[in-house]
């Protein structure tokens, strides 16, 4: 189990460095705010969220998957499917659950207060894919632990899902300019940066669309897909129009307190 945790961390760090370099080499848009004003808080949330998970949850998703498999708990442990079927199917089901979790955080006012920290950022780059409030991370962890227990998700499926989810979150939040033909080809299956960038538009109907992180099919299937921003990518405004671009909203203390503040404070 420790080996898988090591590989998961190593892949995360490697992909983060890769997308940081790629978006410098091929940026999609000009930055409105220097990295020095956004990255310390956005990247600092990695440490805060990691510490919160350690303190709040005595068991990791990988450890729980191993334990449920040993106890033969959950649907897939009862079905006795081959790993070739069970693993990809569980990865797809977990991705579907994350899609609906994301929609739920946009639909319920008290969850939106927590999630809006992710949307207040007035710029868009790979660091935004890591900018989630600790409360949201904890709630997401509870959902994942519940699904792993109910479904009996294999350890390999949990490992692959979390690696893919982290990698895709960084990929589709990166300020990376893909050739239009490549973007059109990729988004037939996967969520691309241009596709997810629409989700961070200030326009209400756009930031309530394109909820997927991994597979692009869910937004099409459940009618939440918007192909392109109304104003075009060159004129796309990020953040929330009713929320001021105050300095404390780019600092770690301000981000942590944001769910408990109103736009005027």
TrEMBL record:
Record keyword Signal present: no
Protein's UniProt keywords contain Transmembrane: yes
Domain of life from the UniProt record: Bacteria
Keyword tags: Membrane, Transmembrane, Transmembrane helix
Record-linked InterPro entries: Fatty_acid_hydroxylase, Sterol_Desaturase_Related
One Pfam family hit: FA_hydroxylase
Membrane-traversing stretches: 6-26, 46-67, 79-100, 145-171
GO MF annotation terms: iron ion binding; oxidoreductase activity
The Fatty acid hydroxylase domain, residue ranges: 88-223
Subcellular location field: Membrane
Any one GO BP annotation for this protein: lipid biosynthetic process
Gene Ontology CC: membrane
Protein name: Possible sterol desaturase
Native organism: Agarivorans albus MKT 106
